[in-house]
Structures are given as structure tokens and as C-alpha cells.
Amino acid sequence: MGVASVLTSLVSGLLPRDGIRYKYSAVPASTEDCESPPPPHDEQLVHGNHRPRPLHEQARLLKLTAGAMILFAVLAAAAVYGQAHPDSRGCEATGSCDGVSPHTWGQYSPYFSAPSSLDPALPHGCELTFAAVLSRHGSRYTTKAKSSPYHQLLDRIHASVDKYGKGLEFIRDYTFTNRVDDLTLYGQKELVQSGAAFYQRYKDLAHGSEPFVRASGSPRVVMSAQNFTRAFYEAQGISGMGKLEQILVLPEKVGFNNTLDHGTCPGFEDGPWSALGDGKQENWRSIWAAPIMERLNHKLPGANLTLEDTVYLMDLCPFDTVGTPNATKSDFCRLFSQEEWHGYDYYLSLDKWYNYGNGNPLGPTQGVGYVNELISRLTGKALVDNTSANSTLDASPDTFPLDRKLYADFSHDSLMTSVYAALGLYNRTGDLPDTHKLSPGQTHGYSTSWTVPFAARMYVEKMRCAGHTGSDELVRILVNDRVVPLQGCRADGHGRCRLGDFVEGLSFARSGGHWPLCYA
Length: 520
Hints:
The chain is built from 16 helices and ten strands. It is an alpha/beta fold. It has one domain: Rossmann fold (3-Layer(aba) Sandwich), CATH 3.40.50.1240. Strands 3, 4, 5, 6, 7, 8, 9 and 10 form an eight-stranded mixed β-sheet that branches. The model is unreliable at 11-88 (pLDDT under 50). The active site is at residues 137, 413. One of its GO terms (molecular function) is acid phosphatase activity. Pfam families: His_Phos_2.
């Protein structure tokens, strides 16, 4: 049974009849239409060159050039020093930015396949022997902690603003949902599609082995695992309902070791680096969001929006969008230009990088437990870990089997960011500046929209390939269908390393990271 059939059968009675429809728009080109100057007439040419102009024409040309230069200087100064009127801009001036891409909404982006310079298909002459997926839950409503500030902001705007500028009129009657934390209907569909896609990619392995499935204990994570599991089995023409009770749920509570959720390292949660990303974000926000705030305050007289309010209004775009059955783009998305959304994406990337990733001294350590479990599964050897792994569960073949060919784990974006760091996937990225933004191309593929969108998935593949000598298999990692060349080992042209070399390169995880600092 194909992906389309699975989607149809699973969502019958639950999802709209038109099934899954991604309404992503391409990022608009930034180039302007320019006309080429007409070719010179034959009489203007002398042996392929322009004939010299008369002196009076040259003088006139110099005057025109000087005038143009003065005009350019005035316009440039106005742009630099903020003398241009807040409305003298592009589509954002009228709230008509229809072409903005949902792939620039950071971790709030609906799932999409990230661009890959290496072919994600199985290389010719290779046979898969193992596959594991680490997945984020699907699109959700905003968290309870964020819901209150959003409602307060909208209430304040409604109470203080009488005149709404062009494009913002819809805010007058807009009400934000009261639902929090749970998966949206669209988010459920994302995991249905993910489970079916996992089967289609690894169906040869599925014929000889059922996947072992675990989920961190948050309800939205558990539901994501259930939707994925049902879809995986429905793709084979088998009812997946009976498989749901086999999912191992790891509680998210203090004192319970859980490699799918951070929370067992006090030094990370409450130590000196626990809010490292906040300062980075504030610095970038003061640069990137200031002109946006100025424009919105001009168009919403009386609102007195702050920089934080400005970001909150941008947040409403992705949450309003994924709150619809087919991720129909919200009117809030139209209020900001594509360039402003790139700044927003970078703002969210700073948070994950410096609070959970390579930029935080204890960020990678939060992913060490999962990486050590991955090493154990890849090698078939007993787990060695003294960090966040649950020694009771991982010692039992019932709760931590090593004989499966397929594994599926479900978690959150923050933990996944730490796992990427513990694996060294983005070691080439370097420190992210907080005074200007870098594109995903400049960061070697790091951006929260590329790494941890809703329903994000990391595939770890092990394969045997013709022409490779020795008994060592090859390992490859894909993040949202993008092949991420492995670091710390001798990667080949497909981004792969030999298993032994790959494990050897994970010395940070195998040595426990900086776990002693958790209790220093």
C-alpha cells in the first residue's frame, strides 16, 4: 500500500477528504526586472567602439550624472538614518506579502524536506541493514506559557487602537485560540505521513523486523508516536491499532532518567549557562526587529508595541497557520517581508544554538545519553552510559532490544538539537553572530527551520555496499531528508563513514561529555 492509500485510510472520518495538502509557496526571487539598454546605432560605432560624443553632449551628461549621484546620496542617507517614512517600503507596507515561505519560521515551520547537496537516495550498489529515526512531534498549538502573553497583547491592541493601518484591519476582530500544547489536526497528519514515508523508505527492513518504538511522555509526543506507528503498519496493509500499546513511554518527570527529554542535569537547567541564548536573541532583536516595530506602531497608533510584542505578532503567523487543517497561511504572515522572516528564523536559531546546541557548554551533553544508546544499537553491544540513560530499562531486552533492524524514537526540538550537537553534525557551523544574520548555506546547513521544524526527523542508516573492502558497514545520517556529512570521521563522497570510524569519532559522547559539570 502506498503513502497516498495510507493517508486516505487513516484519516477517514478524522481529516478532510482532500487529504494532505502542503500549501508551501516558493521563496520569491529578490531580483528586479531590468531592461537592457538598446544597442548603439551603426553610425555611433567606430571599429567596434562608440564614436566620441560632442563636447556639449559630454557636459550635459556630466550634469545628469552629478544630479543622479546627489539624489542617490540623499536616498541612501534617508535609509541609513531612518528618515524614510515607515510606509515607504514593499509589500509589508500594505500587509500584502503573499509569497512568504513557511520554511523560514524556525522551529515553528511546518515540516519540509531541507535542501541537500548530496543525493538522499540509497547509493547504487548498497543494501540497508539498519535504520533509526529520531522524530519531533507534529505541529502543535502554542504552549500554555506563551498563550497568556499572546492573549494579553491582542487584548491591549483591541483596547487601545481605533485605527488599523492598511493590511492590519483583520486584527480588529481577530481572536486567538484558547487551545494549548496539543497537536493540531495538521500536526497529526504530519506524523501520519511520516510513518508511511518511513515504511516506504525502509520496507525491505520492515519485512524481517518490527520497529521498536519509544516516546517521551508529553501527550503530543505520545500521540505523534501513535500516528506514526499506525501509518507505518497501514502502509503494509496491516492494522496498526494493536501495536500502539507496545510503544514504550518514558515519563517526563524529575528523577526519571529519560534520553528523549532534558531535565536530569541541574547544572544545565539552572546553572550559569541556562539562559545563554536569551542575551544573544535580545541583541539580534534590537537590530532586526526595531524597524518592524516602528512600522507596526505607525500603522497601529496607540498600541505602543515593544520589540517583544513585535516578535509575538510574528509568532502568531505560524501558530495560526498550523491551526488550520491544511496549514492555510494566516493573515499575520502577510504583514512581514521575506527578508524579515529570514531575520525571524535566525532569531529562533540563536535560541536553540546557544541554549541547547553547540553554543552552550552543556548543550551537547544533554544529547550524550541518546547517542550512546544509538551506538549500542548500531553495534549490537551492551549500553555504556553514565549520563541520562535509564539503566533499569536499558538493561532489559524487552525495553531496550538490540536485535531490531528498525527503531523509532519521539521527542522535542530542544532535545534533538542537543543530540545533533553530541553527534557533531554541525561542528563546522562555528559561533553564530548576534549582530548580523547568516543564511543556512553560510552555517553549513544549521537553521532551526532546517533542523527542527515541526515533525522533524533524523534518519540514521547503516548499509553494506559493493566494492567496499572489510567487514565494516557504512553509516549515514539525514536530517529532514538532507544528507549531513559526518564529522569526526573520514567521510566519503556520500557523507558516510565506516561504522568503526564513526563510533571512534564519537569520543565526546562515549566519555560522558561534560556530565560532571551537571553537579558541580
